[in-house]
Amino acid sequence: MSVQGQLTGAWPVAPTPFHDDGALDMDGMRRVLDCIIDQGVDGVCILANFSEQFLITDEEREALTRLSLDHVAGRIPVIVTISHYATPIAVARARLARDLGAVAVMMMPPYHGALLKGTAEQTYAQFAAVGEVGIPIMIQDAPLSGVDLPVPLLVRMAREIEMVQHFKIECPQAAVKLRALIAEGGGAIVSPLDGEEGITMLPDLDAGATGTMCSAMISEHIAEVVAAHRGGDRDKAVALYTRILPAINHENRLCGFRAAKAAMVEGKVFASDFCRHPVPPLASELRAELLGHLRPLDPISMKWGH
């Protein structure tokens, strides 16, 4: 992260480990964070969708927020995801993140299921309310919410809500939207990042993304791609990206958040790749194929605990 507050580089989402009985593995969470720091990343995001935030109770969320920020202890910056349909709850989560030392909060627009979706004005009002807390906000533009966030709305929020500074663009045609957002928003768009495990990272970097919010599976390799591209060596970035793309594709299209957990279990970061019901376990065939893609890359996640 630059001194001007712009987020650059690789910002992996930390997976949430559980024991085989479904209870949170709090020691495993500490080890996850240590492993991610050892990957040499620029920062970390907790309690996001790839952290299985939708399978975690409010009490567990608070406990994980406190544990994570205490354990990281300023070694790298931490973004805390605070998405909720209810604006007062999102505001309360933002206050906790601010008080515990998070560098920013990330939030999707208000939604609940397929039919409860915030309008443009409701979305604006929620981000404005969170902005009053006084911690920088990353808007997560993800298909999961089902809420349309057109570029003019994003630019309006960036210009009128001081704390709206960062953007995770992971919608279809992300590169097109990033390019338009940067062109229309100018300096108000402090940090345009991409997501979706980096599956469109190269065109997104070409479009002006300053970094990516990836998974924690191969973060050090993701960071190398971003660093090469930002350093002006696109040919190197292409070569590095080409090498890791099969693993990213397998993660993005077949495994989802279970991929990073499988890699970290293989690397003895934590013991169980359990996911709470109704999420099914990763099929043994998919797991074997994933690890086959990963082994030539020798990722830190797969050797950290050995």
Automatic annotation (TrEMBL):
Keyword Repeat carried by entry: no
Residues holding pyruvate: 213
GO molecular function (one): 4-hydroxy-tetrahydrodipicolinate synthase activity
Gene3D superfamilies: Aldolase class I
Domain of life: Bacteria
Entry keyword set: Lyase, Plasmid
InterPro entries: Aldolase_TIM (IPR013785), DapA-like (IPR002220)
Entry keyword tRNA-binding: no
Assigned GO CC terms: cytosol
Record family assignment: Belongs to the DapA family.
Entry protein name: Dihydrodipicolinate synthase family protein
Organism: Qingshengfaniella alkalisoli
